[in-house]
Design goal:
By secondary structure, the protein is an alpha/beta fold. It has one domain: Rossmann fold. It has 10 helices and 7 strands. The chain has a 7-stranded parallel sheet, with helices on both faces. The longest helix is centred in the middle third of the chain and has 25 residues. The chain is globular. 43% of the residues are buried. The structure holds nicotinamide-adenine-dinucleotide.
Length: 274
């Protein structure tokens, strides 16, 4: 990229079908073996992208990659990745450039939300792990992706409605997702001149293997999941594909002028929360 200030082209005359398409793009989805990430992988492949799943669970990632490739005809690969390992992040980003023709889209989806209990009960280890994966891992992944995006690109950060509001019992998670929303703003400012957009997505409760597991102890502690359903203005909890469709939009040229913001995909939770 030249040192001239980046100026986005005028897309007014570009047909909608081209704006939506991810054809020819190379996309990495961290945590793409499960839940929201797997749904993003499927929609990105359907939109024409070549997709790389980077996940700690290589067995599941390989299975998802094969299923999505068979269903869409796209090239979908799986690679072992722990987002807390900056060398592995760098290697993956550089491999996209050297072996796959570039890096256009990087989705920071991998994240954890083990239940903690209230702040007075949260252990040092728990807080450290939450920050290590959700904040430090996301930061390093964005940095390595941006270094490899020499022709511009899009970084999508999966934040949460917990990046905007708080509730009891998950203070370390709430802290971590507020950090992701802040990081999204900061990265957008610093990377805009390189033609890189950075956009967050804030899902409300979405049914995934991760939430299924997290709900077991939460429900035992009296967490009211039905209240979340009642609070949803669309009458149900989120499905992974609800988030994946937004992820296609923000990564596509439809959202070419969107950067620095975090889009709520929350069935009105933030609008209606007391
Ligand atoms: N499901 C929800 O209700 C919800 C709501 C708001 C935000 N989110 C966010 O969406 C993202 C995905 O959530 P989900 O519910 O689909 O999760 P999930 O647990 O179903 O899937 C997460 C995937 O990330 C992988 N992963 C975990 N740690 C990793 C690491 N260090 N490196 C690489 N891969 C790793 C796991 O192996 C798994 O495949 C998370 O960032 C989460 O905080 C989820």
């Amino acid at each position: 990229m030249s040192s001239d200030k980046f100026v986005q082209p005028d897309l007014t005359e570009v047909p909608l079908e081209k704006l939506w398409s991810l054809a020819g793009k190379v996309a990495v989805v961290t945590g793409g073996a499960s839940g929201i990430g797997a749904a993003i992988v499927r929609r990105y492949a359907e939109a024409g992208a070549r997709v790389v799943i980077g996940d700690m669970n290589l067995e599941l990632a390989t299975k998802v990659a094969a299923e999505v490739a068979a269903a869409t005809g796209a090239t979908v690969e799986a690679t072992l990745l722990n987002i807390t390992d900056s060398k592995a992040l760098r290697a993956l980003a550089e491999e996209c450039v050297s072996d796959r023709g570039g890096l256009d889209i990087w989705v920071n989806n991998a994240g954890i939300y083990p239940p903690t209990g209230d702040v007075l009960e949260a252990s040092d280890e728990h807080v450290a792990l939450m920050l290590d994966v959700n904040v430090r891992g996301t930061f390093m992944a964005a940095r390595e992706a941006a270094r490899a995006m020499t022709n511009g690109g899009v970084i999508v950060n999966i934040a949460s409605t917990s990046g905007f509001r708080a509730s009891r019992g998950t203070s370390a998670y709430i802290m971590s997702k507020h950090a992701v929303v802040g990081l999204t703003k900061s990265l957008a400012i610093e990377l805009g001149e390189r033609g890189i957009r950075v956009v967050g997505i804030a899902p409300a409760v979405t049914t995934t293997p991760g939430t299924d597991a997290a709900m077991i102890p939460l429900k035992a502690a009296g967490y009211d999941l039905e209240a979340k359903t009642r609070a949803s203005l669309m009458g149900r909890l989120g499905l992974p594909d609800d988030i994946a469709r937004v992820a296609v939009f923000v990564a596509s040229d439809m959202a070419a002028w969107v950067t620095g913001s975090t889009v709520a995909a929350d069935s009105g939770l933030l609008a209606s929360a007391p």
